[in-house]
């Protein structure tokens, strides 16, 4: 297990598990946790032995958002928050979205504020039955950040997204699945086991399919249909020449399980 101060990191059977580990403060994001999380995400993304990543949290809640007790140098200066978001929070969110590996988020308890953005940045979400997403910003006269407006708009549409933000709503796990914000709800005591099992199912798929479909789905949000089809055609041409395509084709006709290598 890798040694971080605020993050637990391990790899077992092709699954990397990154665990937020500040349970005493509901895993609120201080600078150390922000930077270590980004380092852990980069490590998993670059590890060729890793096929999928589980993002989890210790204690009673996934992430309470920013650590509001933290005082950093220059905090009283105009423009400080802009720099902080652009230099520390946003690169973390983008590191997950742009990773070639699929991320499965295991949400226990509250994913609040920018903690909800961290969860929604993941490709797949499993929630404990006691978990919820909480757009807490409006309660203190702020707006959601960390890409939350885009995540909520894509999943909920503008009216439901605006309602959630305006009313500082908490969305329970079952409602999140109903609205398409999460994939599965499981008993709270089985959350990590079930999320890891889900990650293993995903990891068994062709690595190139996982990588490039994630890329296309991300870029399709800002592309028109013609551009998406052009991107699909370009990548399909690349994949049809891959070793994994040849292996998958042979395995299909030989009625056996393919052994993909990601190349």
Automatic annotation (TrEMBL):
InterPro entries: ClpP/crotonase-like_dom_sf (IPR029045), Enoyl-CoA_hydra/iso (IPR001753), Enoyl-CoA_hydra_C (IPR014748). The keyword Iron-sulfur does not apply. SUPFAM superfamilies: ClpP/crotonase. CDD domains: crotonase-like. Transmembrane segments: none annotated. One of its GO terms (biological process) is fatty acid beta-oxidation. It comes from the Bacteria. The keyword Lyase applies. Keywords: Lyase. GO terms for molecular function: lyase activity. Belongs to the enoyl-CoA hydratase/isomerase family. This is Enoyl-CoA hydratase-related protein. It comes from Microbulbifer pacificus.
